């Protein structure tokens, strides 16, 4: 097996298609070298070698790599006519990470490898630049010392020890800039740096270049598994077993004087998508100076420089003198760079993010990759590239990362304010958006402030109203499908869940985060896209939906095969979803309507009723309310299909748990507090999710099904009078046996018949079922003899197939994912291997009985791109998702169909 691939010079082993093996950086270096872009020669050690290293360890891997690495270095030496470790004519190398997809800043890099006390003298002589040689040497010790040898600050408040030494010397010498150090200063730094290394690590700084090289290679491999890299992979869903490649490359120097420079450039604007070449550079500097922001970088183009000066309120005179663009300062090199950037974008057919270095008037391209971009830029670049003829319409569609569309639909923080803000905790990015508000700890106090952040250990259905009022929701417990997360996504509301480092004391009404106490009324801000919690107010901006967004939707419609419906419980949700292109409602969860203040009472009376008569009495109060809800929804949907599900959750969720409310209820119902309490205790279940819920409710209290059916049918008849013809789809939840369904069906059909007779009018309606219990999938052929449609409730189907409680999985799923026991949260991304089999069996058996059976999905997975693709492949008729995910599902469904 080959573990080392060479690039640059005459022979290049790899090419751009080999990203899995060579990593993004390695594959693109090879490709650039093939198309005649000047890249410093080097070689890539494969990602497979990284995986081998993780299994076999350093010693074995070094043995496996030794011959190939040594021969590759020899190749570079011959090309560059210099020698690694040579005192007279030294070759210096860089060692960089490069995973299959870029993980910017997450892994390690070491530059200037190959220097020691003798070689530095040779470098000075060879370049006739003593200052440059010693500057490179001190940088090398600094970087290698921290990356490879692990030199760290003593306390987390401290600077790293190297920076401390630099600052002390600057102070002593009365200078501000690194560039003001003399050769003698740099020699002092080298001496002091080496001492720090020895003191902190107990090991002398290695003088043997080969030892340095191997140290660098293994440090890069190790950096795949640092905490921050693992976390980055977790939130970006990058598998832990991919590994990183290592790129070893000839050093070229941007710090060799005034004819040298280094910079970063984008072929288009990564924030807005505008088609303008842009970027930053520094004269006489090395790459990390641009990124680290020690000096103010200058703009590459004249246009960019002018725009920048305007923002920074710098006069044109000052700009030209102090901050000239590369275009103005080195016009010929700029032209060459401009030519390469065009060539690279045309070749890779996407916006490129590239790094370059100019060494004494010679331009080198160090890396190129498809540039990271905002959601807005993603959409604009895809559509512009299509219009420019760079890509075809299928490619444009595939360029959209559906999940990123989310950013376009919610208010956002502007990046400038975020940089100035202080992170106090981090949780899961449960529902995107940006929220700033005052802390409240109880749902019923959400209205206390105009902008509140409902801050809870966890939320329950009782908190729904408060959640709706709050600007954002923060919980310290619970995962991506915790109640708070599901509801927040449905509302399109920003939510950070499971921020475990925060402690909440409900009694004292305080939360502790990052060593500080926050009280009710204190301002915090949530970033639902990253899971960051900030102290204080961070200003937000409203997103604007661009014309390109509509173009992407049009493009999706061209290819999409499935319909996209929405999960909506209110006319408002329904309207939002329609504005995003929803073609119907796939799930109305009727229970959410019962939580409103004026209804919960009647609901509670119904639940606490001792007799059928009393229950019917309470239900009759709920009937007109439900009817008007359904009317509102039918009107909002104007004849598009609407699926309404009968009552599902365990009744215990509706009863009051606070003493005050229990007292009120007792008074209202003219019964004793004790009676209320004992009834509530009676309703308590050990395992409510598996208990008295779903159709088990309707089958034990048929009058609930009767009332709900009546409300649905009467509402349909009412809107019919207004000219809206709707065909309600009445859905029975949590069916496991045929009889559970047919019993409910009987009640529904009889009730409808009764209403038609009373009203002397009728409407068409369907009776179908959710498939969310494994047994239902297995007997789908029998259920399909009766049910007129299936809707897969993959939330419950996941819960019951895995045996993972939806509400408790937050305790172990993050650990499972961290340890690689699971690749993804199955409540977020449908588990195609297991749960998917049941879906497949359900559809196959259902359609064996009824070939035209209408099948959809209404679990949270209906808005998750990979799961949507699965639904397409399973030939479902539709997916249904929360309103704000409708555009995402449309694009994902279209992508699955191209
Ligand atoms: C499901 O179980 O997937 C579903 C849609 O129903 P709920 O989330 O309301 O249980
Ligand atoms: Mg369910």
From TrEMBL:
Residues 20-388 form the Pyruvate phosphate dikinase AMP/ATP-binding domain. Keywords: ATP-binding, Kinase, Magnesium, Metal-binding, Nucleotide-binding, Pyruvate, Transferase. SUPFAM superfamilies: Glutathione synthetase ATP-binding domain-like, Phosphoenolpyruvate/pyruvate domain, Phosphohistidine domain. Pfam families: PEP-utilizers, PEP-utilizers_C, PPDK_N. InterPro entries: ATP_grasp_subdomain_1, PEP-util_enz_mobile_dom, PEP_util_AS, PEP_util_C, PEP_util_CS, Phosphohistidine_dom_sf, PPDK_AMP/ATP-bd, Pyruvate_phosphate_dikinase. Residues 546-897 form the PEP-utilising enzyme C-terminal domain. Gene3D superfamilies: 1.20.80.30, ATP-grasp fold, A domain (3.30.1490.20), ATP-grasp fold, B domain (3.30.470.20), Phosphoenolpyruvate-binding domains (3.20.20.60), Phosphohistidine domain (3.50.30.10), Pyruvate Phosphate Dikinase, domain 2 (1.10.189.10). Substrate binds at residues 589, 645, 772, 793-796. Residues 450-531 form the PEP-utilising enzyme mobile domain. The active site is at residues 483, 858. Its cofactor is Mg(2+). One of its GO terms (molecular function) is pyruvate, phosphate dikinase activity. Mg(2+) binds at residues 772, 796. It catalyses: pyruvate + phosphate + ATP = phosphoenolpyruvate + AMP + diphosphate + H(+). The keyword Membrane does not apply. Its EC number is 2.7.9.1. It is an enzyme of class 2 (transferase). NCBIfam families: pyru_phos_dikin. Catalyzes the reversible phosphorylation of pyruvate and phosphate. Belongs to the PEP-utilizing enzyme family. This is Pyruvate, phosphate dikinase. The gene is ppdK.
């Amino acid at each position: 097996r080959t573990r080392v691939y060479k690039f640059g010079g005459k022979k290049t082993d790899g090419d751009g298609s080999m990203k899995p093996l060579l990593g993004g950086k390695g594959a693109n270096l090879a490709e650039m070298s093939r198309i005649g872009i000047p890249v410093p020669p080097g070689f890539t050690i494969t990602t497979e070698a990284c995986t081998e290293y993780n299994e076999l360890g350093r010693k074995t891997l070094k043995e496996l790599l030794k011959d190939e690495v040594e021969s590759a270095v020899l190749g570079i030496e011959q090309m560059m006519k210099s020698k690694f470790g040579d005192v007279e004519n030294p070759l210096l190398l860089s060692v960089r990470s490069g995973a299959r997809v870029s993980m910017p800043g997450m892994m390690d890099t070491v530059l200037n490898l190959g220097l020691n006390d003798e070689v530095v003298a040779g470098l000075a002589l060879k370049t006739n630049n003593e200052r440059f040689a010693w500057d490179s040497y001190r940088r090398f010790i600094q970087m290698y010392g921290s990356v490879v040898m692990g030199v760290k600050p003593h306390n987390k408040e401290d600077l790293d020890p190297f920076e401390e030494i630099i600052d002390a010397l600057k102070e002593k010498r009365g200078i501000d800039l690194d560039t003001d150090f003399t050769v003698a200063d740099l020699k002092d730094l080298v001496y002091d740096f080496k001492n720090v290394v020895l003191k902190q690590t107990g090991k002398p700084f290695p003088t043997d270049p080969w030892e340095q090289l191997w140290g660098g290679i293994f440090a890069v491999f190790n950096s795949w598994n640092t905490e921050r890299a693992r976390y980055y992979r977790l939130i970006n869903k990058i598998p832990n077993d991919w590994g990183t490649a290592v790129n070893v490359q000839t050093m070229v120097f941007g710090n060799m004087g005034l004819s040298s420079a280094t910079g970063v450039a984008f072929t288009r604007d990564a924030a807005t998508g505008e088609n303008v070449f842009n970027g930053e550079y520094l004269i006489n500097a090395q790459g990390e100076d641009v990124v680290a922001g020690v000096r103010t970088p200058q703009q590459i183009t004249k246009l960019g420089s002018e725009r920048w000066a305007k923002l920074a309120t710098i006069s044109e005179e000052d700009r030209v003198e102090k901050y000239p663009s590369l275009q103005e300062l080195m016009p010929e090199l700029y032209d060459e760079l401009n030519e390469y950037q065009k060539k690279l974008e045309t070749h890779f057919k996407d916006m490129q993010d590239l790094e370059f270095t100019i060494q004494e008037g010679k331009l080198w391209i160090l890396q190129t990759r498809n540039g990271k971009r905002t959601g807005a830029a993603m959409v604009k670049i895809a559509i512009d590239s299509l219009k420019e003829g760079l890509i075809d319409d299928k490619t444009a569609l595939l360029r959209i990362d559906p999940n990123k569309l989310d950013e376009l639909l919610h208010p956002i923080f502007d990046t400038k304010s975020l940089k100035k803000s202080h992170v106090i905790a981090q949780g899961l990015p449960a529902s995107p958006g940006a929220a700033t508000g005052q802390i409240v700890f109880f749902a019923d106090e959400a209205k206390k402030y105009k902008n509140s952040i409902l801050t809870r250990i966890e939320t329950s259905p009782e908190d729904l109203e408060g959640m709706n009022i709050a600007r954002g929701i923060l919980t310290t417990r619970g995962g991506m499908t915790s109640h708070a997360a599901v509801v927040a996504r449905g509302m399109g509301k920003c939510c950070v869940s499971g921020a475990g480092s925060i402690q909440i004391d409900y009694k004292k009404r305080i939360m502790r985060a990052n060593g500080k106490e926050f009280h009710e009324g204190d301002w915090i801000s949530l970033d639902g896209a990253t899971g960051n919690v900030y102290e204080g107010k961070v200003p937000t901006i409203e997103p604007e939906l661009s014309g390109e967004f509509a173009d992407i939707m049009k493009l999706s419609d061209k290819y999409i095969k499935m319909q996209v419906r929405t999960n909506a419980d209110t006319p408002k949700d329904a309207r939002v979803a329609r504005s995003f292109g929803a073609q119907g409602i796939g799930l109305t969860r009727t229970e959410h309507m019962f939580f409103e203040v004026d209804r919960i009472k009647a609901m509670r009376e119904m639940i606490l009723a001792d007799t059928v008569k009393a229950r019917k009495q309470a239900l009759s109060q709920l009937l007109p309310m439900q009817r008007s809800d359904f009317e509102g929804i039918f009107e909002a949907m104007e004849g598009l299909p609407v699926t309404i599900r009968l009552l599902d959750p365990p009744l215990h969720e509706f009863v009051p748990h606070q003493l005050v409310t229990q007292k009120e209820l007792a008074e209202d119902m003219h019964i004793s507090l004790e009676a209320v309490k004992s009834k509530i205790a009676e309703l308590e279940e050990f395992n409510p999710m598996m208990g008295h819920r779903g159709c088990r409710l309707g089958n034990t209290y048929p009058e609930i099904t009767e009332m709900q059916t009546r409300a649905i049918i009467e509402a349909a008849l009412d809107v019919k009078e207004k000219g809206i013809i709707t065909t309600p789809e009445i859905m029975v939840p949590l069916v496991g046996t045929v009889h559970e369904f047919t019993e409910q069906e009987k009640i529904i059909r009889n009730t409808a018949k009764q209403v038609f007779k009373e009203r002397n009018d009728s409407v068409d309606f369907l009776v179908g079922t959710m498939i969310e219990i494994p047994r239902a999938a297995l007997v789908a052929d029998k259920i399909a003899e009766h049910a007129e449609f299936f809707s897969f409730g993959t939330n419950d189907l996941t819960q019951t197939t895995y045996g993972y409680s939806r509400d408790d999985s937050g305790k172990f799923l993050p650990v499972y994912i961290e340890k690689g026991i699971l690749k993804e949260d199955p409540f977020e991304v449908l588990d195609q291997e297991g749960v998917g089999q049941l879906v497949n069996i359900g559809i196959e058996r259902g359609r064996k009985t009824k070939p035209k059976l209408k099948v959809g999905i209404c679990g949270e997975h209906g808005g998750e791109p990979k799961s949507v693709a699965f639904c397409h492949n399973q030939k479902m008729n539709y997916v249904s998702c929360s309103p704000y995910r409708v555009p995402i599902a449309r694009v994902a469904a279209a992508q699955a169909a191209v």
